[in-house]
């Protein structure tokens, strides 16, 4: 079943229930503390990379396989295939923030900013301190011309990691 279930998920609707997402909140809080204390971007980057490893740690092997497949498709600019993979992932694991975050990224790349924002809001309901979803939401709000809201969300992301590349978009104050 371990080999068959990922193939079934990639081909069609899920046949089993997704387990709860892993709880990495303690490890992420520690990483955020360390990012905030980092003296420079080079020190913060490996911590940010580790946070991404935790965000993309799927609830089970089947979800991990679909996530990996969708991310590879997105990286090769097969945005339709990637969106379909993330649709399946969300259908299978609706409580896992990363499925919503990844589909939002595909919507953003397709310049469907309203759909991206909807998915980012859902991701943030599930994981309010998800750096990728926060920075993605700031970029999406900017693309929608909602600059004041974008700045507020960007500040929330930078409160967790002041060294995000998006910090260059902050207006009106220094960190």
TrEMBL record:
The UniProt record lists the keyword Signal: yes
Record's keyword terms, sorted: Repeat, Signal, TPR repeat
Keyword Repeat appears in the UniProt entry: yes
Protein name: Uncharacterized protein
Superkingdom classification of source: Bacteria
InterPro entries linked to this entry: TPR-like_helical_dom_sf (IPR011990), TPR_rpt (IPR019734), Ycf3 (IPR050498)
UniProt xrefs under PROSITE patterns: TPR
Lineage, uppermost ranks: Bacteria, Pseudomonadati, Pseudomonadota, Alphaproteobacteria, Rhodobacterales
Family annotation (Gene3D superfamilies): Tetratricopeptide repeat domain
Signal peptide: 1-16
TPR repeats: 97-130
Pfam family, one: TPR_19
Cited SMART domains: TPR (SM00028)
């Amino acid at each position: 079943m371990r080999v068959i279930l990922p193939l079934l998920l990639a081909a069609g609707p899920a046949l089993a229930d997704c387990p709860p997402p892993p709880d990495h909140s303690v490890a992420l809080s520690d990483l955020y503390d360390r990012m905030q204390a980092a003296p420079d971007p080079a020190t913060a980057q490996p911590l940010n990379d580790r946070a991404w490893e935790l965000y993309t740690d799927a609830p089970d092997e089947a979800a991990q396989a679909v996530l990996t497949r969708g991310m590879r498709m997105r990286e090769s600019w097969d945005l339709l295939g990637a969106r379909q993979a993330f649709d399946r992932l969300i259908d299978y694991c609706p409580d896992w923030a990363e499925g919503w975050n990844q589909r939002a990224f595909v919507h953003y790349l397709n310049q469907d900013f309203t759909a991206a924002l909807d998915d980012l809001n859902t991701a943030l309901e599930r994981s309010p301190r998800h750096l990728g979803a926060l920075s993605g939401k700031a970029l999406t709000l900017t693309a929608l011309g909602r600059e004041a809201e974008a700045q507020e969300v960007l500040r929330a992301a930078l409160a967790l990691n002041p060294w995000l590349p998006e910090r260059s978009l902050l207006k009106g104050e220094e960190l």
